[in-house]
């Protein structure tokens, strides 16, 4: 019995020592300018890479089908390029961003990429929704109106929050702003999951006569959150998918 108690005490002591060492390491990292700079510059490189990939994809699509003008796909890649480019710039110049005297300017620089991210990925949801509705012979007239209305409301609310914080620096309103950004991101994720799942199931039911047609029907590309998006290569406005 004594041996069991002694063993338990030793294990508890080892766990406590490990937790203390880990906590000390984290505090050292958290207070180290070198570690902080390394983390921010790593994020800068990652976002710059994703931004470059989005730009390359945009150029590739434009060269392949220049006659279609600015399609939803092209606008999405452009917005993806802008979103990740802005994030790369913000993280790259983080030292100057955090030194801004006016707090609301700092919040705008940190929150604006999140809003642009919301617009970019709700645009992708719109693209998927249009394909799904056309394939099911459902009306698509109101989808773009809904997209514009939702984005307008989100931007209007966030701008009002920024204006209020510029006039009156309030910790509660700042917290509300953070919760709002998280909430709109969750809404985008919900639409992403709903229409992405529906479209995936729909495409699996399409008759595929050849590997070439299957390759054209499905096209995947990686985005900044390493998600795989599947969508038809071309879309006919009359309600069928043009291969």
TrEMBL record:
Domain of life from the UniProt record: Eukaryota
Domain THH1/TOM1/TOM3 stretches: 23-219
Transmembrane segments: 39-58, 78-100, 112-133, 145-167, 179-203
Keyword Lipid biosynthesis (UniProt): no
Compartment(s): Vacuole membrane
Keywords in alphabetical order: Membrane, Transmembrane, Transmembrane helix
One Pfam entry name: THH1_TOM1-3_dom
Record membrane topology: Multi-pass membrane protein
InterPro entries: THH1/TOM1/TOM3, THH1/TOM1/TOM3_dom
This protein's GO CC annotations: plant-type vacuole membrane
Similarity comment text for this entry: Belongs to the plant tobamovirus multiplication TOM1 protein family.
Protein name: THH1/TOM1/TOM3 domain-containing protein
């Amino acid at each position: 019995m004594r041996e069991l108690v002694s063993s338990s005490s030793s294990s508890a002591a080892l766990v406590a020592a490990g937790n203390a060492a880990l906590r000390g390491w984290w505090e050292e990292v958290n207070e180290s300018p070198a570690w902080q700079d390394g983390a921010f510059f790593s994020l800068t490189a990652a976002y710059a890479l994703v931004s470059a990939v989005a730009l390359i994809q945009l150029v590739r699509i434009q060269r392949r089908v220049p006659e279609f003008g600015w399609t939803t796909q092209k606008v999405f890649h452009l917005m993806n390029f802008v979103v990740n480019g802005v994030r790369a710039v913000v993280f790259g110049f983080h030292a100057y961003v955090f030194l801004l005297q006016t707090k609301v300017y700092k919040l705008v620089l940190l929150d604006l990429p999140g809003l642009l991210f919301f617009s970019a990925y709700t645009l992708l949801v719109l693209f998927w929704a249009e394909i799904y509705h056309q394939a099911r012979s459902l009306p698509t007239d109101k989808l773009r109106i809904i997209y514009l209305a939702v984005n307008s409301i989100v931007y209007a609310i966030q701008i009002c929050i920024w204006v209020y914080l510029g006039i009156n620096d309030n910790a509660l309103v700042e917290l509300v702003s953070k919760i709002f950004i998280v909430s709109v991101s969750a809404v985008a994720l919900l639409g992403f999951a709903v229409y992405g799942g529906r479209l995936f199931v729909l495409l699996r039911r399409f008759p595929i006569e050849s590997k070439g047609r299957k390759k054209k029907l499905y096209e995947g590309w990686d985005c900044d959150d390493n998600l795989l998006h599947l969508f038809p290569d071309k879309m006919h406005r009359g309600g069928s998918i043009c291969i």
